[in-house]
C-alpha cells in the first residue's frame, strides 16, 4: 500500500502543477501533455490498487468482497 500512497501523492503534485499552469495560462500543448501524464499515472495507480485488492480477496477466499469489487469495475 505504501507504493500506492506514494503514487497518489505524485499524482496530487501533478494536479497541483496543472492548476498552476492553467492559472498562469501556459501554452495549451503543455497543459494537455501534463493532463495526459497525470491521467496515465492515475490509471496505473488504479490498476495497482485493483490488482492488490483482488489478490487480497482471492487469498482470503472472500467472494463477497470480490463480487463488490467486480461490480465496481463494471460500472466504469
Major sheet description:
none
How confident is the prediction overall: mean pLDDT? 88
* Derived structural class: mainly alpha
Q: Give the N-to-C terminal Cα separation.
A: 23 Å
Which segments are poorly predicted (pLDDT under 50) over 5 or more consecutive residues? none
* Count of helical stretches: 3
- Rg computed from alpha carbons, rounded to a whole number of angstroms: 16 Å
Report the β-strand fraction as a percent range.
under 5%
Family: Belongs to the FrmR/RcnR family.
Pfam family, one: Trns_repr_metal
Protein name: Transcriptional regulator
GO molecular function: DNA binding; metal ion binding
Give me the secondary-structure topology.
Blueprint: H1 2-23, H2 28-59, H3 63-74
Helix pairs in contact: 1-2, 2-3
Model description:
- 0% of the residues are buried.
- The chain contains three helices and no strands.
- The model has no long low-confidence stretch (mean pLDDT 88).
- The protein has 76 residues and is mainly alpha-helical.
- The chain has one domain (2-74): Methane Monooxygenase Hydroxylase, Chain G, domain 1 (Up-down Bundle), CATH 1.20.58.1000.
- Pfam families: Trns_repr_metal (PF02583).
- Belongs to the FrmR/RcnR family.
